[in-house]
């Protein structure tokens, strides 16, 4: 092979490089993986020609990668697997239509780790069609298949030391090499986790096996590279000792490669920057007859091997090589991509090494131990194994409907994946709406910890009267009303790449308005992605509303829940609830916490006082019961008490428990681990508008069947649970509605019409409500706004109406507050307005 070396500066150290081989065509595209960067990448390249008809590599796309890229292997023309120094593996696809993006199909997270819970690098991969073998620093051998989300077999203690290389000899045989110079053949037909044969690289010095490869046509012939630079040749059919040993490089061998079409040619590279070509010096024509004795299979190789250096010493490690016919690619730690060509091509190259410090791409600082601690918990969430499916749907569709039970992880994980998608294509942010303020704040706090960033910087929240975000914010949690208000000043919501509507099943007034507005926005913004997330299985209506959007169903992590009903209706549900709490504490022998649903702050505080009084009267021998209230106006530091552990069990065996007394905020918005017993009186406060007297009020109303099912599901999060419904089974089946009545059908539409007018939507009659309000209700709202001078006689928004729309108030209160300036009574009216507005708080 003649020498023709060219280089390309790529500003990153390349750890692996692989040709994308075509079907009987000359390859021109290839992959590289980087290491030792704050953000590592898998980059997809192609060769193009310049004005002088000289080829040069050009980037088609890239994929951000957590950890160093330790291996890249194609399993088909467009599918490949990538290994990480964090012990994870991903199955990715190159989009054959655009060639500009990667699609993630599967992720095997942390399948290599030490018993101390620290991550272990996945050091090597080998593939045989759809089968994948992975080895790592933890001495583990994992067998995967592209069709399964979990390893099909794990050989936990394949080695007592790190395994550095692996090679599929046949579909049922894998060869591994470790840090002590041992090579082991694993017969996968054998259920016992013991190797069929063990080989030793060197009898004199223990040298690590850094790379192994087999002959393309004579698969029993294997060459192993050592960290002393040696090349050792084996015939696995005959001996457990090498046939010959070549004193090759002066430092560790990085990779070994046979030419697939002309296997009498061998290529090696080393960490001291050497790239060598080996072939048979006695043969003028390269022999391909597999029946001949290969030149490596000799007692002595003296005089039989010709070695050619393909480039001047790089003085930097060359970590990976790959050849396609006459073009060899290789890469180095000198942050350049180089190539050696025989005739008319150009080449790139990589590097293999390990970075023990991983950098956060958002802060450019090393990840903290807390990040890895939380990441190990995140990958156990039910939603996590659906990451590849979600990313594929997100890239292919503009709108997705996702159903996931409370506790599946959808609220914390899905938005983070949307941030990854958003950052891969631009600089716009991600918004995730919540129906309740407490959920927006608590989830933002949790996600900021998971992303290892400060709350209010890269991750923030926005609620009424408080904006905890900054220009650096890439993920913002907010109440649905706040996003609606942003839409008044930015109708196309251009600040966002992805918008998620969480807890859409609650059908709040703002959520219904947002769905109607966003349905119009996505028609005008093809780049905007919309994700509708619900905790109930009644998602068909959302799908139909959004033009048959694809549905993704994520099952929760639930256990069986035993349901108990009262034989007769309870006259005083508060008294019955307190009595049930005391009975559970006294009589139930299994440990577990309690969750009691009540309707509002006053009831909750009264219940907590009475429960404490009852427990004090029972004496010191009874297990301690800690009572924790939860409602939306509770200060955030007190809301965090729900995550405190239960009191310990006493010496006499009396079980300590905590009881969380909550509004319906704990139905879906928050997940409280440890709850085994749920007490459901069957009531909640609902906002109801009386059009006759034009007054909104909060009424204690029966809940729906869907809400009752959500409440019962809270008992089965960690173990089998019990739900005590303080109403009869007949009432549940015959009297309760299937779903909560949408708020838009029981609200004053004056503020709705005003907001829609402010958003630029004039044709209210044809506005696409999911559940259209009655025409007479809409007309009454238009008449009211015209009477208040917010709309003119033609139904257009007046200047006064535009100002009124900026106030988060009922139109009458907004008009009263504005008019007070003309009557010198602003302070008094402000106080009155504030007092009247308090009544509108739902929890």
TrEMBL record:
Keywords: ATP-binding, Helicase, Hydrolase, mRNA processing, mRNA splicing, Nucleotide-binding, Repeat, WD repeat. GO terms for molecular function: ATP binding; hydrolase activity; RNA binding; RNA helicase activity. WD repeats lie at residues 222-244. It is an enzyme of class 3 (hydrolase). It comes from the Eukaryota. Its EC number is 3.6.4.13. One of its GO terms (cellular component) is spliceosomal complex. Residues 391-555 form the Helicase ATP-binding domain. GO terms for biological process: mRNA processing; RNA splicing. Residues 582-760 form the Helicase C-terminal domain. Belongs to the DEAD box helicase family. DEAH subfamily. DDX15/PRP43 sub-subfamily. This is RNA helicase.
